[in-house]
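Quick one:
INPUT:
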């Protein structure tokens, strides 16, 4: 039994704009979700470091400084988490024209 390859013509279907946009949307969503998880882990790590520093604090002033420092760091990280969550919501709702702009904005975050 032999297969004749002369009549074999594989076809390649170019993905349509909708498939490309869906893939881009999924990629952006995955990147944002990964960024949120990383930021949340960073918040947890900062809180753990603060607990260690509080246990070692020798004075009320040192304790107050540790609390202020962690409060500032967590606040900054939480702002970034909120921004990422808002962007994630936006990605799920926007049209094609805005999707690429959001993708470019995400690349800036990740770097």
């Amino acid at each position: 039994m032999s297969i004749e390859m002369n009549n074999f013509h594989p076809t390649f279907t170019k993905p349509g704009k909708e498939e490309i946009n869906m893939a881009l949307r999924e990629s952006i969503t995955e990147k944002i979700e990964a960024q949120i998880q990383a930021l949340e882990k960073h918040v947890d790590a900062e809180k753990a470091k603060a607990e260690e520093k509080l246990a070692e604090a020798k004075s009320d002033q040192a304790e107050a400084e540790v609390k202020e420092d962690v409060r500032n760091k967590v606040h900054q990280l939480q702002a970034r988490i909120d921004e990422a969550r808002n962007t994630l919501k936006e990605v799920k709702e926007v049209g094609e024209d805005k999707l690429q702009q959001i993708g470019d904005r995400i690349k800036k975050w990740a770097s």
